[in-house]
Specification:
The protein is globular, with a radius of gyration of 22 Å. It is of the alpha/beta class. Helix 6 (129-138) crosses helix 8 (163-170). The two termini are 41 Å apart. It folds into three domains: 4-209, P-loop containing nucleotide triphosphate hydrolases (Rossmann fold); 212-272 and 290-361, Rossmann fold; 369-442, 2-Layer Sandwich (Alpha-Beta Plaits), CATH 3.30.70. It has helices at 11-19, 27-37, 52-63, 80-93, 111-120, 129-138, 154-159, 163-170, 188-197, 208-211, 226-237, 249-261, 275-286, 320-327, 384-395; strands at residues 42-45, 73-76, 102-105, 124-127, 148-151, 178-183, 202-205, 213-220, 242-245, 266-269, 292-295, 310-313, 336-343, 352-353, 369-374, 402-407, 412-417, 430-433, 436-442. The strands form three sheets. Strands 3-4-2-5-6-1-7 form a seven-stranded parallel β-sheet, sandwiched between helices. A seven-stranded parallel β-sheet has the order 10-11-9-12-13-8-14, with helices on both faces. The protein has a five-stranded antiparallel β-sheet with strand order 16-17-15-19-18, with helices on both faces.
Amino acid sequence: MKLFNEFALSKPLLDNLQTLHYEVMTPVQEKVIPLALEGQDLIVQAQTGSGKTLSYAIPLLEKTDLTKLKIQSLVIVPTRELAAQVTGVLRQLGRCYANLKVVSLYGGTSVAAQIDSLKVGAHIVVGTPGRLLDHLGKGSLDLSFVQRLVLDEADTMLDLGFGEDVQKIVSKVSSSRHVLLFSATYSDKIKTLTQKILPFGKFVSISNDESIEIETIDYLISGYDKNRALEQVLQYHQPDSVIVFVTTKETAQKLYSYLYKQGHDVVSIHGNLDQLERDQRLNLFRNKSSKVLVGTDLVARGLDVPKVSMVVNYDKPSKKEQYIHRIGRTARAGEKGSVVNLFYDKKSTNVNPLPTVTVAKSIPLKADFFTLMIYGGRKKKLRPGDIVGSLIKEYNIVNMNIGKIEVSESYTYVAIRKEEMEKFLKENLSLKIKGKKFKAKILKL
């Protein structure tokens, strides 16, 4: 396997990659980055979780001309969550470049605020099809200078009915653009799209055994209450983190209630939640304040949660493509993972009886952290270092008890070990950061 420093990348970027502990490339990065740096059009079939975001983020950053505050790269993604995630990666990788401007455009947030950001200028724009079309219609988005175009999770965009929207957006970009298309599957729909957008693109395929290591376990649950069967699986395996996939919003809510009553630290994500609620619950799971996430296939697409140790298919996915996206939530970036499928009927000779659970192992999955939500983010110029300094000075928190910190536009989420929780159990909690007071609260499961 190759190292990042084997490529002729700029020193600031190489130094930043090392700081972020990116050293060894994943197979998709090893194959895509050199071709993308050469300016080749690529159609990349790679499993979710294979490290594809870095495989296009690095070439985009390396090719950006910081002296020209015009949109030079456009990344089109299917969901709000993926847009926020990709924007975060680009900003994190690009923090070594002075004055790099990355703007994200997606629904559920203020159009006016996005227009103001676009007026200031941007080098890279990340957006969902619907919101990109909104801005094109309002005349607030100019794509005439775009030289590099990325379509991420193209199969998901087509499944969600964004095919025509994507083509409309692409038509606004110069025909001499450099295009990178990424898809976990390569269906006939994808083939049709690629023929229209990049007919001469080079096809790059990363096989599953190159990028992920997943153990699959099929359990026969005939004669068992389904909820109880899931409980036995969780008790037996005791996963460090697990996503349980269901097919409907109603099932998600009912299963969440059941697992919560069993004492598990659990959250649910489905289509009935607004964007802030989805962000909050995802943060609870991502920063290890929750060990179980119950979700519909909304969770299978465009969410980057590292080190998910297990995926459970509580309900069978309706399409093979959905199954591929679901299992792509585990075994990401070289980590190992397992997939559990619950069957009412025997499907193969490899189906196992439900595991026996001893009384000693019948304990709920409890998280080691709680999450502190601070009412301030990038707009208030808050940075992770500021938060850590405040917690150490004002609350005498040991550095090792501070976990993941995520700073969004308006809020900051901080994971803190539970033994420190009593210090924050106040009705009107405020934190003094950089000489200013910020309202805060413990985010509830």
